[in-house]
Design a protein that fits this description.
The protein is mainly α. It is about 75% helix and about 0% strand. It has a single domain, classed as Orthogonal Bundle (Tetracycline Repressor, domain 2), CATH 1.10.357. The radius of gyration is 19 Å and the shape is elongated. It comes from Lentzea alba.
């Protein structure tokens, strides 16, 4: 085997390698701007091999959407079933894996009916899961997801304590309070 020939990997390992490369590419460029040749190059394989394994760019993007929602579900399953703990787990995931928030935003923005349907289905399933796990009512679930969207956008914009505009960043991150109003 020469230097230009990629090492043989088991199919599952190769698939994981492609998914990792695709996650980065689609997080940066979305469905429309993502390039299979860039994914193939990052994974160290040929463009035709990516197509052979996934069928099309859209199918690969849909797989990345599923991978992303699965990561969120796994984060939720690894903590206490309270809105505060689930929110903290989501923020930790966004901080640990920046691509999660970016893929979420790319999925929401995709101008493709199949992608919109997949994102809609997974998002609604996640909302129902939160309600079931926590016993939260509709208002609390909406507020939880509104807070999550602020956190997702904030992570995508890299708002954090390291920024020069820390006070502004902190204000943005505290805009949505997950607790119900007292009357």
């Amino acid at each position: 085997m020469n230097e230009s020939t990629p090492a043989r990997l088991p199919a599952a390992a190769r698939r994981a390698q492609i998914l990792e490369a695709a996650e980065v590419e689609f997080a940066r460029n979305g469905l429309a701007g993502g390039r299979l040749d860039a994914i193939a190059e990052r994974a160290g394989i040929s463009h035709p091999r990516v197509v052979q394994m996934f069928g099309s760019k859209k199918k690969l993007f849909l797989e990345i959407v599923d991978v992303t929602f699965n990561k969120i579900e796994a984060a939720f399953e690894s903590t206490q079933p309270t809105l505060v703990a689930l929110g903290a787990a989501y923020v930790e995931l966004l901080q640990r894996e920046r691509t999660v928030g970016l893929v979420m935003l790319q999925g929401y923005a995709a101008a493709d009916g199949d992608v919109q349907e997949a994102v809609r289905r997974r998002h609604l399933d996640l909302m129902k899961s939160i309600a079931d796990l926590t016993g939260a009512d509709a208002w609390q679930v909406r507020t939880f997801f509104a807070t999550g969207l602020v956190q997702t956008v904030s992570a995508a914009l890299e708002l954090s304590e390291q920024r020069a505009d820390t006070a502004w960043s902190a204000w943005i991150l505290q805009l949505v309070d997950p607790s119900p109003p007292t009357i």
